[in-house]
Write a structure and sequence with these properties.
Length: 319
């Protein structure tokens, strides 16, 4: 069995997918790694490559294992903006999810977990599990590039929206990818343990005061970046509403790109964090990179990329 496995990574040209492909290609039990991504092949764009189609293909082609990449956004925050502090995979949290992205992830999670145990065309059984990522940083993280550009435009000042007591998890992209590799392998070896399970991504990146984590990442690349001031919720809410009015008035002639909306603002200012070791207990996950290594690797990339970063364009792009 070892050496004969073929892995397919959907979205394998993306930020996390690219790192998963890189790590999979280094494993000696894998015969071949295939990538399915609209970036890689333009003809893929004509297909509707949703989760339901992936599950249908697994059943028809007798693919016995499926690992789905979800997000903490599938859990919350909810529309009431109720906080979750250091929960785990078994913590109960209810209510309608605030962000549209989270709603689609929650729907996909449900159909993936419901498909666990389905019969395959060859008589076998499909085994599925879910990994929930959070805020993933590292080389090629677009949000870090945008933050750095904004800080440079403000003479190195990094302002922030969330209150100082807000907690959010960040995980280095290399550790997220490594958890996927281990989970996929152990789903094959120990399906009775992993099938039907959900796992949060984690490493030793600090979870308290997320704006300080971002500051450390940016200032490690550029020491001139320094912490600015907290932007009150009411002020940003007014800016969003004003932007909506201007956009409506000017829409026949000019459509400025929305930079933020109220649901996303509500999510940013709501504490939503977890604390778990489930992946370690179930399949021996340990981060490949420490917080110090992750910060250094991210800073090295950001410094190298800084020269090619364009000035921020907040209003010129059409939808």
């Amino acid at each position: 069995m070892d050496g004969a496995w073929v892995y397919l990574v959907t979205g394998g040209c993306g930020f996390v997918g690219e790192r998963i492909v890189e790590l999979l290609s280094q494993q000696d039990y894998i015969k071949e790694v295939r990538v399915f991504d609209s970036v890689a092949r333009e003809e893929v764009e004509k297909f509707s490559t949703g989760t339901e189609n992936v599950l249908r293909a697994c059943c028809v082609l007798s693919i016995p294992f499926l690992l789905y990449t979800s997000s903490i956004a599938a859990v919350g925050p909810n529309t009431s903006c109720e906080p979750l502090l250091r929960g785990d995979e078994d913590t109960e949290y209810s209510g309608e999810v605030e962000l549209p992205y989270g709603k689609t992830k929650a729907m996909a999670e449900r159909i993936v977990l419901e498909a666990n145990g389905k019969k395959l065309s060859n008589g076998g059984t499909l085994r599925t599990c879910v990994i929930r990522a959070n805020t993933v940083y590292g080389e090629k993280a677009a949000f870090l590039q945008e933050l750095y550009l904004l800080a440079r435009a403000r003479n190195g000042v990094l302002n922030y929206l969330e209150p100082e007591n807000t907690e959010r998890n960040h995980t280095y992209v290399g550790n997220v990818a490594w958890m996927h590799v281990l989970a996929a392998r152990n789903l094959q070896l120990k399906p009775e343990q992993l099938a039907g399970q959900v796992y949060y991504c984690y490493d030793d990146t600090p979870s308290r005061k997320g704006f300080l984590v971002r500051l450390q990442l940016l200032s490690s690349a550029d020491p001139s970046v320094r912490l600015g001031s907290h932007i009150p919720y009411w002020k940003m809410w007014l800016v969003i509403q004003l932007h909506r009015v201007i956009r409506a008035i000017l829409s026949p002639f000019w459509r400025p790109q929305p930079f933020l909306n109220v649901p996303l603002l509500n999510t940013i200012v709501t504490s939503f964090s977890f604390e778990t070791d489930k992946a370690s207990r179930h399949f021996g996950y340990k981060p490949l990179f420490t917080w110090q290594e992750s910060r250094l690797r991210t800073a090295q990339w950001l410094r190298a990329a800084a020269g090619s970063l364009a000035a921020p364009q907040l209003h010129g792009k059409k939808n």
